[in-house]
Amino acid sequence: MSLARVHNFSVSLDGFATGEGLSREAPFGHAGERLHQWMFATRWWHERSGDAGGTSGADDVFVRRFEPGIGAEIMGAGKYGYPGWHEDPGWKGWWGPNPPFHTPTFVLTRHTRPPLAMEGGTTFHFLDASPSDALKTAREAAGGKDVRIGGGATVIREFLAARLIDHLHVVVVPVVLGRGVRLWDGLEGLERDYAVDTVTTSSGVTHLTFERTAR
Questions:
Q1: How far apart (Å, rounded) are the C-alpha atoms in residues 56 and 69?
Q2: CB of 72 within 8 A of CB of 139?
Q3: Does this model's pTM top 0.90?
Q4: Are 93 and 105 in contact (CB under 8 A)?
Q5: Which residues contact 15 (CB under 8 A, 6 or more apart)?
Q6: Which tens digit of pLDDT belongs to each residue from 199-209?
Q7: What is the full DSSP assignment across 147-174?
Q8: How many Å apart are CA 165 and CA 149, to the nearest integer?
Q9: What is each CA distance from 192 to 3, 11, 155, 184, 188, in whole angstroms?
Q10: How does pLDDT run across 112-148, given as a tens digit for each residue?
C-alpha cells in the first residue's frame, strides 16, 4: 500500500504552524513568512524561482523530498484559500495557473464544488470526507504512488490522531509566535508509535522525522 507522507511542515518553537489573523492579504496571519525563510534560502527554492545560488546543505536535501514518488495530495480548506474563499467562485488557490502539486489534489471542505483542472497536471477535487475516506480516495487516484498530506496543522493533526500518516517531516524554526494554530495539541504519546530522528542545520532549524513503526 502507498504511504501517507508529510514534508517540509514548519512550526515555531511553541508549536504554531501558522499565525493569527489569516486573510487574503496575510495567508499565514501575523507569522508572515518567518516559518519558511529556511526553505527560501535553499538551492531547490532558487531553482524553482529561476534564480541562481541558494544553500546546498541538509535543508536543501530535506526540501527536495517533497515531490519524488507522490501521486496525489490532500490538503485542508485553510491551505487552499483564505477564510471565506468558498464564497468566491473565481478563487483557484494561492499558486497561480500552474500550482506546484502536478497531481490530483483533494481539498477537504464542507463547501464542495466541481473539480478544477489547472496547468501542469494539478486538478483540485473538493471533498467532504473523513481522513480515512479521503486517504482511500487519494490512494486510488495516486496509482500506486504515495499520498502527500499537505496541511494545514488541523488536517495533519487529524491524520496523526488516526495514525494514518506513515512519514512525518516537521521543521522546528527558532521563532516564538505566541498565537495561531498549533500542530501538537491532543497528540500526547504520539512518539510511541513512531521512530523519531532529528537533524539540526546551520540555518538554525531542526528537522524532525517520524517513521511509523507499526502498520
A1: 22
A2: yes
A3: yes
A4: no
A5: 182, 183, 184, 185
A6: 999 999 999 99
A7: EEEEE-HHHHHHHHHTT--SEEEEEEES
A8: 8
A9: 19, 21, 21, 14, 9
A10: 999 999 999 999 999 999 999 999 999 999 999 999 9
Q: C-alpha grid cell for residue 111? A: 463547501
The total number of residues shown for the chain amounts to: 215
